[in-house]
UniProtKB/TrEMBL annotation:
Entry superkingdom: Bacteria
KW Endoplasmic reticulum (keyword) present: no
Species per Swiss-Prot/TrEMBL record: Solemya velum gill symbiont
Organism lineage string: Bacteria, Pseudomonadati, Pseudomonadota, Gammaproteobacteria, sulfur-oxidizing symbionts
Record's protein name: Sterol desaturase
Single GO term (MF): iron ion binding
Length: 285
């Protein structure tokens, strides 16, 4: 348990080291062996996508100083949640907690595609006309706030060990950058790996302009959920190099690349019916 105690005591160092370390790894991989040519200059794309990441981090720190780790600590102190009520093996509690929190992320992802008002927020993520590791952290601040509230509720109900929340946060951040990478694994490796976790090729399908492809492969970490709930799609119909990334309506860099356009995007156009059920995105989307 010494390692667990060390992780909890050095939570910020662990998270920041993993975050910036993964940026270096993915940026180097994309530079040396990109899957697709970028439509927007790399420096502009990275500056704006990472700009909204740091804006979100600043706003979250203001709104929720304790964040998910603080809620997990409070849940332990107050005996809130399943694992604080029932005594189980710490290892089992950590594993189950990570898996359950990943399932919640999957269900939340389906929800933000299905509900029109939430889709308006989530389309900031999808409107990126390029697909690289910075896309994985590109979300509107309001969606980040809603996601954090859902995470808080999950922690309070589940009562996960604090270290499980830390590990989940680290894994989710690393996997989001990995599976949004502008890279490709060798075909045989990809076929094997995606039985367990989401690969760049698997998730890239989800960022297609074609609505049936965009409404598939919702997982961020474990690939199990898409296979289990019937939302799995193997490959894009136009291939990974030929497919078009983004949303048909929004192709202008002022709307989808620059930070002010991203922040304003949810408030453009009309609210229509359930987004996930339509065969084509309308001009208002």
């Amino acid at each position: 348990m010494e390692f667990v105690d060390w992780v909890v005591a050095n939570e910020k160092v662990v998270r920041m080291s993993c975050f910036f370390g993964m940026i270096v790894i993915m940026a180097s991989w994309e530079y040396l062996s990109p899957c697709r040519a970028l439509l927007v200059p790399r420096a502009v794309h990275w500056a704006n996508n990472l700009g909204i990441v740091f804006l979100n981090s600043f706003l979250l720190r203001l709104a929720f100083p304790a964040a998910a780790i603080g809620v997990a600590m409070t849940a332990v102190e107050q005996n809130w949640g399943l694992f604080n009520y029932y005594s189980v093996s710490p290892v089992l509690a950590i594993i189950v907690s990570i898996v359950v929190m990943d399932l919640v992320i999957y269900l939340q992802h389906v929800m933000v595609h299905a509900v029109p008002l939430l889709w308006r927020l989530h389309r900031v993520h999808h409107a990126d006309i390029d697909y690289d590791f910075t896309t994985g952290a590109r979300f509107h601040p309001i969606e980040i706030f809603l996601s954090m509230l859902i995470k808080f509720a999950t922690i309070i109900l589940l009562g996960p060990p604090v270290v499980a929340v830390i590990l989940f946060e680290v894994i989710l951040n690393l996997m989001a950058m990995f599976n949004h990478g502008n890279v490709r694994l060798p075909a045989a490796v990809d076929r094997f790996v995606r039985w367990f976790v989401v690969t760049p090729d698997m998730h890239r399908v989800h960022h297609s302009v074609n609505d049936d492809e965009a409404n598939s492969n919702f997982g961020f970490n474990l690939s199990l959920w898409d296979r289990l709930f019937g939302t799995y799609r193997d490959q894009p119909r136009d291939g990974h190099v030929g497919m078009t990334i983004g949303i048909r309506k929004y192709r202008d860099a002022r709307d989808v690349t620059w930070l002010p356009g991203m922040l304003w995007l949810p408030f453009r156009g009309k609210i229509s019916d359930y987004a996930i059920n339509r065969r084509q995105w309308s001009d208002d989307e």
